[in-house]
Amino acid sequence: MSDKASGKAPEMKHSPGQPAPTGKEPLPANKPGGASAPGAGGGAVPAKPEAPANPNDVSLTIDGRSVTVPKGTLVVDAAQKLGIEIPVFCSHPKLDPVACCRMCLVEISGPRGPMLQTACSVPVAPDMVVSTETEQVRAVQEANLAFMLLNHPLDCPICDKGGECPLQDQTMRYGPGISQLVEPKRHKNKQYLISDTIVLDQERCVVCWRCIRYLEEWEDKPQLGLFERGGATLIDIQPGKPVDAKTGGNIIDICPVGALTNRVARFAYRPWEIDRTPSICTHCSIGCNLRMDSRTHSVRRIVGRENMAVNDQWLCDKGRFAHGWINDAQRLQTPLVRKNGNLVAASWSEALEVVASKLQSIKKTSGAESIGAIGSAKLSNESNYLLQRLFRSTIGTNNIDHRAGADVAALPTGLPALVDLMKPQYGPDPKADVVMLVGVDPSEELPILDVHLKRAVRRGKTQLIIVHPRKVELTRYNGPYLGCRPGSEALLINGIAKLALKQVQNSHTAPADAAGFVADATKEALRTVCGVDVDEAKRAAELLAKAKNAVIIYGPMVAQGEQGKQVRNALTNLALITGHGSRLAYVGLEANSQGCRDVGLLPNALPGHAPLSDEKLRKTLEKTWGGPIATKAGKSYSQMLDGAGSDLKALYIMGANPASERPAWAAKLDALDFLVVQDLFLTETAQLADVVLPAVSWAEEDGTFTNLERRVQRAPKAVRSPDSKAASDWMILDHLAARLGAQWPFANVHGVTAEIAKVIPAYHGLTWDALGDQGVQWDAAAITRAKPTMQPVTQETISTDGYSVIGGTVLYDDGDLFAKTPLMQNMAFGAAVGINPADAAKMGIETGSLLKVSSAQGELILAARVDPSVRAGSVWIPESLPNAPVGALRNGAAVPHVEITPGPKSAA
Amino acid sequence: MNRADLAAMAQREQDRQDAFRCRVLCCASTPCLSSGGTAVREAIEKAIKDGDLDADVQVVSTGCMGPCSRGPVVTLKMRGAEDVVYEQVTPEAATRIIQEHVAKNEPVKEFVFPNDAPFFAKQHKVVLANSGQIDPESLEDYVARGGYTALAHVLREMKPDEVCESITRSGLRGRGGAGYPTGIKWDLVRKSQSDKKYVVANGDEGDPGAYMDRSLMESDPHRILEGMAIAGYAVGAEQGFIYVRGEYPVAAKRLERAIRAAERRGLLGSRMVDSQFNFRIDIRIGAGAFVCGEETALMASIMGKRGQPVPRPPYPSQSGLWGKPTLINNVETFGSIAPIILNKAEWFAAIGTDKSKGTKIFALAGDVNTTGLIEVPMGITLREIVYDIGGGIPDDRAFKAVQTGGPSGGCIPAQYLDTPVDYESLRALGSIVGSGGLIIMDERSCMVDVAKFFLDFCADESCGKCAPCRVGTVQIYKLLDKITRGAATLADLETLRELCVMVQETSLCGLGQNAPNPVVSTLRYFYDEYEAHIRKHKCAAGVCALNEKPMSPAVVAPPRPKRKVARLDELEAV
Predict the structure, then answer these.
(1) Which CATH class, in words, describes the domain spanning A156-168+182-327?
(2) CB–CB of B505 and A140 under 8 A?
(3) Bridge partners (DSSP) listed for residue A704
(4) Which H or E run contains B219?
(5) Which of A19, A52, A205, A629 has its CA 20 to 30 A from that of B482?
(6) Residue of A nearest to B557 (CA)
(7) Least CA distance to B289: which residue of chain A?
(8) A230: which chain B residues are within 8 Å (Cβ-Cβ)?
(9) What is d(CA B571, CA B561) in angstroms, rounded to the nearest whole number?
(10) Which residues in A lie closer than 8 A to residue B464 (C-beta atoms)?
(11) What is the pLDDT of residue B566?
C-alpha cells in the first residue's frame, strides 16, 4: 500500500502537508536581546541565537515558551501549537483574517515596547515575544466581551447554540462577570429567513464576518453583506435574494454565536443531550465527513466534520438538511407478502421462507440464469458484497448489476486523489494544474468538488476545461468551454486529441501510432457535427498539452451505452497523447458507485475488478464462499430489466427503483414470476413486488462506503427505531442465505467488512478498525490493468429532429429521499424542462408555461424553465424528477430526441 | 510641451495680465459665495461696464483669500501699487470700489482690511501662495506663477531617489494628521518591487470645522496635480487617484478641469513635459463616510468596496490598491512638494521647529473675531493664532479651550496657550495637530457638551467593523448624555474613563483609537466640570439640561475588581 493510502489524515488544524513542528523542544537563546553583538575577534561566544533548522521556519516565544513554526503562520496558530488558547470570534482557521472582533489582542513586543496586536492577523516573526496573559490583555478581553454582550440578547435558554456557543464559553472563561454598561440593547430582526433552511437572528450577531467570508472565499457567491453603519451595522441578504449557494449551510457551522441557525434542526436538540456519531454523507460520491447528532432514536441534525483529504470541513446543503427521510413515518416497518393480489404484513420468517422457496423452485424449473439481482450504489460495500455473494455462489448466476453499472463505460480506479484538486486555507497549491470536466457538473452533482475547484482556480493556479452541453456554473472561470451538441462528445474529445497532437509533436509523450486514430476528427467535423468553436478546442488542447498534472474527469452522462464506450475511447486517446493517462478518471455520482464496482456488483467481474476468468481469485472466493461460482457473464441492469418477464423469471432488487425510471420497465417487472424488493419505502417498484423486505438506512447500521477517490470510509450506526421490524441488509441476506442452504459465518456486519478486506486484494487490511475516522484510500496500483492503448473512435450520426435531451442530475432533484424534507421543497427543480431563451421565444413560451414533451416512446407535461445555460436546440430534463420519468422518453437512447409543443393552459 | 514652452506660456500670460491697469480678484470659494460673492462679482462687472473700464480692468474669480468670516472678500491689484483687500463687500460697496478706487484711485476706506493686520502679517504662505491670487480654472495663471516648473525640473534633472532624498531632507511630514515623514514614505514605495504602483491623494476631509483641503483643491488644483506627478515619478507610479469628499462638488469639478487642461497641454498623461514619464490622474468621489479618510478604508472605497479599514501591516507602501504598493498622502502634503523642489529642501527645513518643519494650514473656527483659513509656520504659539491672527475672542469673553485635530484630537486649555504648535508639543498635551481644524471655545462652552458633540459624530461615523468602535463609541456617547441629563453618578465617570481607554486600546483603525480623545482630554483638563455636573447638578456654561436624577443604586451595576492597565494609570496620574 502506498503512502497515500496509509490512513489518517494528519491531525493538524491549519497546515496539512507542512512539516511537523518541532513543538516543545527548547530552543537556546531565544529571548529578546539574547543575541549578543558579533565579536569582532571571532570570540568563542556564538553571535546569534540558533536559527531553526529549516530556513522556512520561524522561532518565537509565547508566554515564555519557545515554539518553531513555518513562516507565515499566524500568532494565534503558533500559540495553539503550544496549547495556549487565544480567544477569537472573527478568526477562523479556514478563512482569511479580518481582525474585527478584537478578542484576540495580545501583547507583542516591538521596537516601541509591548503593543496590543491582533494574534489572528499578525504573522510570526523571528524572535517575536508574545504575552497572552498579562493584566492588560485580560482587561482588553473583558472589555471586548462586554462590547459583544452589550447588544447580544440573553436568550441562551432558547438559543440553539446554547451549550456549544463560543460566546458563552468565552464569557465564562474570559468575561468580566459584571458589566458596568446598563443601557438598553439595540433591536434588530429576529427569526429572519435568509434562505428556506437558514435563519438569521441579527440581534445575536456579533458581526464577525465569518458567513460573509465563507460565501466570498469558498463559494465565490457574495450573497451576504454588511448593511448600515456604526452601531446599526447588520448582516443581511440583498433584498429579495436569499442565500442559494449550494453549500451555504456551512455558515451555520462556523457562526460563533447563535445568529445563524439550522431551520431544519431548529429547537430539535440541546447540545448536551445529543449523541454525536462521526459518519459520512451518502448523497453523492464525494463522501463528505459529517457528524450525525441524534437523540431518542432520531437524527436531529447534521454538521460538517473535518477531513482534509475529502471535504475540508464543508458539507453541501443537501447533505446537511435533507435527512428527513431517515425518521420518516412512511418507512417500511415490517415485511410484506402478496396474498390474493395484495401486499399484507407478514413475519420475517414467513417472508423469507416465501423468498427462499420461490427462488429455489424457479432455479429448479428455469435455471439460475433466469434469476437476477439488482443492488444499489446508495448502499454500503457490505450490503452489495453479500448480495453478489448470495447470487454468484448460492444461486449460481452472474446476473448481478446496479444502475449505472455495466451499462456505462467506466474505469476502475476513480480520481487519483481529491487533495490534488483542493486548496485549503493553509497549504500548497493543488497538484492538478488543469482539470477537464467532461459531462460532469460539480455544482449540481458533486457540490463539494465544486467548492474545491473554485478555490483551486481562484487561489491556486488550476485551470478548468469544461465539456458539457449545458453552460454549467463553473464555466464562469473563463477556462475553455466546449458546449457541444449532446451526443457528439466522442468526436469532440477525439478532435481535441488531434489538436493536442500537433502541440506535443516535438516531445515523445504521444504514442507513435496516435495520428491514425484521431484522423477523422477534423476541424470541420468539430464545427458542423459538434457545433463548437474550434479556437476554444485549440485552447483546451494547448492547456492539456502544456499541463504537468492534468486531471480528466468524466461522468455517467457521457458514458452510457455504445456511444459511452466511444467517449471513453476518445478520452483514452486524449489522455495518452497529452501524457495524462494515469489521471483519466470516471466518477460515478452515487455514494458508493466506486465501492459497488470494487465489491463485484457487476455481471462481468469478480470482486476487486477481476475478470470472471481470473482463476486465482475465483479459487480463493470459492474456498471462502464454500461453493462454485458461475462462469458465464451475466446480464446488465438494463438487459435484466428489458428481459424481465421473458428470459428472466425472478428478480431480487435491493435499494433500487427501476419502475420509476421507465414505464416500460414497470410493466415488465409486473410480468415477472417473482419479484423481491428490499428497500426503505414502498417505492413504485416495491408496489409491484411479491415480497417486500424492510431494510434500514446507512444511519441505522454500520457500513463502509468507497468514495470517488477510492477512500473507504466508515458510516457507523447512529440511530435505530425501536418500533420498527426493519432489518439490516446484511442480516436479511444472511438469513436468506441460510434458508437457501448456505452457512455464512457473520456475527455482525464487521465480519463482512473483514471478509471484504480479506478477499479483495485492493481492500487488504481495510477492516472496520483500520479505517478510523478519516477513512483509507486504497492503492490504485493494487489493480492489474492492461496498459492503455490508442482506440478507434466512431461517432454515431446525431439526429437533427426536434430537441435533443440533456440529462444529468440536479442537487435538489425531488427524488424519493429529498422529497421527505418539506422545508427544502421550494428549492427543488420540480417537474420542469430547461429551455434556451431563443427557443422559448420562438415558441412564445416563458418560465412556468406548461409544455408537452413527446417522443416515440411517450410524453410528459413539464413546466418550462427558460435558462440561458441550456444549449439552443436542446432541452434539459434532469433525472429523478417527481412524476416525470425521463425514461418515458428515453427508451434506452443515451441522447433521446423529443418534440416540444405548448401544453395545456394551466388552470390558474 | 517642454521647459521652453512652459516659460513662453508663463511670459505670455504675464504680459496679458500686465496689460491691465487694474485686476480685481473676487474670491469665489465656498464661504465667500455663500455670503453673497456672486452678487458682488455681478455688481463689479456692471460697474466696470457702466464706467467703460473694460479695456483697463480685468475681473478674476479666485480661490480663498483667508479671512472667511469677513467675506465676500475682494482684492484690488492696481499697477504700481500695493494690493488692497476689501472685506464684507456688498454689491453697493463693490460698485463704490470700482467707481471710486478703480476709476479715481480713492480707496473705499471703510471696507479695507489692512494689509499689515496680524491676520496677514503672522502668516507664512507656502502652500497657499497662489490661493486667492490666481484663477483656479486657468492653467495659464498657474503657469505664470511658476507652475509646473518644479515638475519639469524633476523630470529633467533629478533621479527618483534624489527626489525622495530631497523631500526627506526638507523634513516635510504628512499633513493629514499623523505626521509620518513624507520622504521616508516615498522611499518605501520607491523601493517596493512591483509591476504597478499607485499614488493616491487623500482629499476626504471630514473633521467638523476643517476645510483646508477643500480650499486648496478649490483654489489651486494644479499645485496638487504637480505634487502628485512628482511623487509618481519619484516612486515609479503611473497612475494617481484623487479621492475627493462627496460634499465637495466644486473641488471635484475644478480638479477635473485642471486634469483635462494639463493633459491637453502635455503636462500630464503620456510622455508628459517631453519626457519618457507617463502619469495619469483620475478622480474618485466619496460617498459621505468619514472613515474613508482613513487610508485603508479610502483605498477600499477606491476599489469599489465598502469603505472599511483593514488592519495594518501590511502598510499601503507594501500592499495597497489592488495589492500593489501605494503612496497615499494628504492633498496638503502634495501641495507642499513643488515649493520644496523649487526653493530647495533647506529653505523649507529652515521654516518651523526642529522636528516639525515648514508651514501648516489651519482652519480657524469658533469663538474668535476673524475665522478663516490660515497658513502659519510650525512652532507658532496658540496664543498668536488666537489673539493675533484670530483677533481675539469676541466681546472680550474669556478663552476656554481650543480643540485641535477635530474629533480625533483633544482640547487644550488656557494655561497651555503658549505651547508651540507642532506635532510633538500637541501630542504631549494629549491632542494632535491633525488635519488642521482649530476650534476656539470661550467661556460659554460646556466641555462635557463639547465632548458629547464629538462622540455623537464618531459614533455616527463608525463603520461598524470592529466591536470596540461599533459598540464602545455609542456607549461613551450614552454615558456623556447621561451626565448632561443629570442622571449620572460618580461611578459612571469611572466607567467612562475605563471605556475610553479600552476603545482607544482595542479599536482597529484610527477612527476608533482616537474617538475617545475629546473625552479623555476634557476629563484631563476639565474634570471639575464633569464633577460639577454630577455632584452639584450644575453646568457652568448653562448648556446642559440636567433635568433628571440618577437611577436608584439597585439598578446600577456593582463595581468589579480593577485591572491594571498602563494607559489607565497614565490617565489617572494626571
Answers:
(1) alpha beta
(2) yes
(3) A714
(4) helix B212-219
(5) A205
(6) A180
(7) A229
(8) 459-464, 470, 473-474
(9) 18
(10) 207, 226, 228-233
(11) 72
Judge whether residue A33 has pLDDT over 90: no
Q: What CA–CA distance (Å, rounded) separates A717 from A731?
A: 14
The secondary structure of A242-305 as a DSSP string is ----TTTTHHHHH-SSTTEEETTTTTS--GGG-EEEEEE--SSTT--EEEEEEETTEEEEEEE-
Write the CB contacts of B502 (distance below 8 Å, at least 6 apart in sequence). Answer: A139, A140, A143, A144, B468, B472
Look at the block and give the residue holding cell 509620518: B180
**Residue (of B367, B368, B360, B349) closest to B421 by Cα position:** B360
Q: Is A184 on the interface with B (CB under 8 A)?
A: no
Stretch A203-209: mean pLDDT: 95
Q: A803-907 sits in which CATH class?
A: mainly beta
Please answer yes or no on whether B565 and A207 come within 8 Å at the CB atom.
no
Instruction: Give the single-character DSSP code of B469.
Output: I
Query: Is residue B560 less than 8 Å (CB to CB) from chain A?
Result: yes
CATH superfamily of A418-586: Dimethylsulfoxide Reductase, domain 2 (3.40.228.10)
Mean pLDDT of chain B: 92
- The answer to whether the CB atoms of A181 and B495 lie below 8 A apart is yes
With bands split at pLDDT 50, 70 and 90, how would you rate the model's confidence at B103?
Answer: confident
pLDDT at A378 over 70: yes
Q: Is A150 on the interface with B (CB under 8 A)?
A: yes
Is the pLDDT confidence value at A233 over 60? yes
C-alpha triplet B390, B395, B398: angle, nearest 5°: 75
pLDDT reading at A11 higher than 50 = no
**Ranges of each domain in chain A:** 31-150, 156-168+182-327, 336-408+592-773, 418-586, 803-907
Q: Does A176 touch chain B (CB under 8 A)?
A: yes
A653 pLDDT above the threshold of 50: yes
How many CA within 13 A on the CB side of residue A445?
A: 25
Q: Could you give the domains of chain B?
A: 17-115 (3.40.30.10), 146-348 (3.40.50.11540), 356-442 (3.10.20.600), 456-574 (1.20.1440.230)
Which SS3 state, helix, strand or coil, does residue A66 take?
Answer: strand
Looking at residue A557, its pLDDT comes to 92
User: How much is the pLDDT for A14?
Assistant: 44
In the prediction, which pLDDT does B553 show?
66
Q: Determine, for residues B467 and A207 on separate chains, whether the beta-carbon distance falls below 8 Å.
A: yes
Query: A153-181, pLDDT tens digit by residue?
Result: 989 999 999 999 999 999 999 988 777 77
Judge: A179–B557 Cβ closer than 8 Å, yes or no: yes
pLDDT value at residue A784: 84
Nearest to A147 among B465, B471, B478 (CB): B471
Choose among A773, A768, A628, A623: nearest CA to A704.
A768
Task: Please give the CATH number for the structural domain made up of A336-408+592-773.
Answer: 3.40.50.740
Question: What pLDDT is stored for residue B6 in this prediction?
Answer: 94
Thinking of the domain A31-150, which architecture would CATH place it in? Roll (3.10)
B508 in reach of chain A (CB within 8 A):
yes
Looking at the predicted structure, is the pLDDT value of residue B180 above 60?
A: yes
Q: What confidence tens digit (pLDDT) does each residue in B284-303 have?
A: 999 999 999 999 999 999 99
Tell me if A100 and B498 make a contact (CB, 8 A cut-off): no
CB-based contacts of B457, cutoff 8 Å, min separation 6 = B208, B290, B407
Q: How far apart are CA B147 and CA B261, in angstroms?
A: 13
